[in-house]
Each structure stands twice: as structure tokens, then as C-alpha cells.
Specification:
By secondary structure, the protein is of the alpha+beta class. It contains eleven helices and 21 strands. The N and C termini lie far apart (about 80 Å).
């Protein structure tokens, strides 16, 4: 066993710590558009040193299996390949195949995601998605941010990416057909004032762009007064350093302007930081601040999150109407389930996605991070289950694509008027 463990250590060191001149050049296909980045229900990163020492002591057979496969490929594959890229591809594909919410992120991918969680990065300001036509996957521009370098250059929603060069030289362009969204993001982002080359297809035309990267700030939150007594806040994702504080400032300003009913729009909000969902729920809570907002059930222990007593109930005098749909997931569902069941909120729209599990982020010794589904969450003291169930609306309203009217928002305004007794 000792010999096998030594082999394991050597192979893993070669594959993940010291890239050797072997060459190969994958990633989880996103099921939703993304602003050159990704989002899941996350908690703070941790290190893997204690876990790694456990495996080294135990000589786990599964680790030796990986080493054996790695060693065989390194010796027998018919041409040279980059052993680190090989290991990363195996991890990326294998982990996400085992659990669709868990994955490995190499250092560059994780840097992109860290920037996205913070709410700013150097790029061009496009929201990317993946579209399948006749069995083939294409990277497509779902939307372009107002005032962004992409908008100024003329990139439009619906454009298909054909090829990309991260250094702005068309002669160095690589085909987008071979790229995942994360890999595409890695090429589009870069240093401030550097250039990126894009070749796109728009209907029957092919167009070329050289765009200068600038700082892009993602607006996670927006709001306005809709009618007397009715405020509206749209929360796109639970990201950004200041989002909970920004939310308080926005909603408080709506209250100053006379809002007594808040329409909180969580449609197509895929989630983000768990702590932000807890903070927002805590603002509306009407029960004892010592009671749980969410309970995380792990393999070995449970964790209770109940919010900050100093801000508990700060916005409890507002009546809340929630807008949700199938694109509302994870942290959005924690907010929707809690406000519906404990804060007398009215939920309008369609049943949410049903992602009731969350991920922990582990910093790997070799660089990169491992995102592992490590808990299932249950909402409030009643321990309401969300996973694979979702949050059902009190009033089901569907928005039909062919009809440009936002029937869900329209119905929310009608219900708000009823609450205010406006005829």
C-alpha cells in the first residue's frame, strides 16, 4: 500500500502542481445566461489541507485509481499532452457528471467567478448563453449592458460567436465551437484597456469587432415607484459586496416616497451568496430573531442561520408581493419560501426551480477551487423543503413569449392596489 500511495503523490504532483510538457488541450454547460461569469448558492471558501492529510494517511483506493489512470495516459497516449490540462478536464467533466452542482474550477475560471461575485470585472459587458440547434451547441449573446464597450462597438443580443482572440489579433483567434461558456469568458475578460477580437454571425452576415476592455459593473439591484403607495425592486442576483446594504437604502427611499407595498422581483434570479439571502429575509421577519431563517443539513451536523438581531424586522411594516418563475433558484427560493411562509408575502408567477442544496468552496493546494454540494437547506423553524419541489406561487400567472405584456407584474400591481384599497 505504501508504494501505491507514493505513486499517487507523485502522479498528483505532476498533474496538478507541476505541468510537464506533455500537450491536450469541457466545462459544465450553463443552463442560463451569465454576465461573463457564474453563480450558485455559496458559503465562504475553506482550505483542503486537513482533508488532504486524511487521504494521505489512509491511502484511499479511489485516489490510487485516479493516479493509475493518470499514469497510464502519461505513458501510453499516442502524442504529447499537458498533464495538468488532462487532470483538469477529468475533474471538470467527472465531478459535474456525478453531481450537476459540484465542480472543479481552475485558477483562471475561479478568478472570473470571484470577480463576478464582487460585481465588477474588466471585459466588454455581454451576457452569454448557450443555445442548441440541430444537436450543436453555440455561444450566443443573450443581452448587452447599457453603455458597455460591447454596446458601443455594436454587439447585439442574438449574435452568435464564431471565433475569439484574447489579444485582439484575428490571426490568433480560436473557434467558439470548441469553447464552453467559462472558457469563452476567460478569453473575453482581460486587463483594462487591452483588446479582444470577436467574429460573430448575425442572421446571414459575419461581422468582426476589435473591442477595448473596460471596467464593467453589474447592476444587481434596481428599483422605482410604480404608483402611489407601490414600490418595485428587482434583485437580479445575490452577489456584490454591498447588495444587502444597497437593498436597504433602495427600499427605505421607496418608503420615504410613500410605498406601503413592495413588489420584489426575483424572476430569473439564479442565486448567489447564502448570507445575502439570510440578511434580506431578516429585514422582513416578524417573529423572534432567535428563530432560524434557514437550516443547513450536512452529512455530520446541522447549521442554523438566524440573522442579525440589530436589523431584524427593519422593513417588517411593508407588505411584500414576490414575483418568481422557473428561473428563480437557490438563494431566491430561500427568500421566496421564507417571506411567503413567515412574513405574509404574496407570491405571484410560476413555481421556482427547486434547488434546495448549497455548495462549499474549497481552496486546493495545487491552485484552483473545488465547489462541492455540501448541504441541503430547509427554510425557517418549520423546516420547509425546497429541493426538487420549488416554491409554488399563491397566484399562478404565466408570461407568454408572444405577448409582450408583463402579465405577472400587471397582476402584482392589481394585488397591491387591493391591499391599499385603491379603487
Amino acid at each position: 500500500m505504501k508504494k501505491i500511495c507514493v505513486l499517487t503523490a507523485v502522479i498528483l504532483n505532476l498533474a496538478l502542481l507541476k505541468p510537464v510538457s506533455f500537450a491536450l488541450d469541457g466545462k459544465l454547460i450553463k443552463e442560463r445566461p451569465d454576465f461573463e461569469g457564474a453563480s450558485i448558492l455559496l458559503i465562504e471558501p475553506r482550505n483542503t489541507s486537513s482533508i488532504l492529510s486524511f487521504f494521505k494517511i489512509g491511502g484511499i483506493e479511489e485516489v490510487d485509481l485516479f493516479a493509475e489512470v493518470m499514469a497510464t495516459f502519461m505513458v501510453e497516449y499516442y502524442k504529447d499532452f499537458d498533464s495538468r490540462k488532462f487532470a483538469e478536464k477529468v475533474l471538470e467533466g467527472g465531478i459535474s457528471e456525478f453531481d450537476k452542482f459540484s465542480r472543479y474550477a481552475n485558477p483562471k475560471q475561479q478568478k472570473n467567478e470571484d470577480e463576478s461575485m464582487e460585481g465588477y470585472f474588466y471585459g466588454i459587458g455581454t451576457a452569454l448563453g448557450q443555445k442548441t440547434e440541430e444537436g450543436e451547441n453555440f455561444i450566443v449573446v443573450n443581452s448587452v449592458m447599457d453603455g458597455s464597450p460591447a454596446m458601443k462597438a455594436g454587439i447585439q443580443s442574438g449574435d452568435y460567436l464564431i471565433s475569439i482572440s484574447s489579444d485582439g489579433d484575428k490571426n490568433h483567434a480560436v473557434s467558439a465551437d470548441d469553447l464552453s461558456i467559462d472558457e469563452t469568458v476567460g478569453l473575453i475578460r482581460g486587463k483594462e484597456n487591452s483588446k479582444v477580437y470577436l467574429k460573430i454571425r448575425r442572421k446571414d452576415k459575419e461581422l468582426e469587432f476589435i473591442i477595448t476592455r473596460k471596467e464593467v459593473k453589474v447592476a444587481f439591484l434596481e428599483g422605482k415607484s410604480l404608483k402611489p403607495g407601490i414600490g418595485y425592486a428587482r434583485l437580479r442576483e445575490f452577489r456584490g459586496k454591498t447588495t444587502p446594504n444597497d437593498f436597504v437604502v433602495l427600499v427605505s427611499s421607496l418608503q420615504v416616497n410613500g410605498a406601503r407595498v413592495l413588489i420584489l422581483d426575483l424572476r430569473n434570479n439564479p442565486g448567489g451568496w447564502l448570507a445575502w439571502a439570510v440578511k434580506i429575509n431578516n429585514l422582513f421577519r416578524v417573529n423572534d430573531s432567535r428563530l432560524p431563517i434557514v437550516i443547513l443539513k450536512r452529512k455530520t451536523k446541522n447549521e442554523v442561520m438566524n440573522g442579525d438581531a440589530t436589523t431584524a424586522g427593519k422593513l417588517k411594516n411593508l407588505r411584500v408581493i414576490l414575483l418568481v418563475n422557473y428561473g428563480s433558484a437557490s438563494a431566491s427560493e430561500i427568500v421566496a419560501a421564507y417571506l411567503k411562509n413567515y412574513c405574509n408575502a404574496l407570491v405571484i408567477g410560476k413555481t421556482t426551480f427547486g434547488k434546495g442544496v448549497g455548495q462549499s468552496v474549497f481552496n486546493l493546494v495545487s491552485g484552483g477551487k473545488l465547489i462541492v454540494t455540501s448541504f441541503e437547506y430547509f427554510v425557517g423553524e418549520k423546516e420547509i423543503k425546497v429541493h426538487e419541489i420549488g416554491v409554488k406561487p399563491d397566484i399562478e400567472v404565466d408570461n407568454i413569449k408572444e405577448d409582450k405584456t408583463d402579465k405577472q407584474l400587471q397582476r402584482a400591481i392589481e394585488e397591491a392596489e387591493k391591499i391599499l384599497n385603491i379603487k
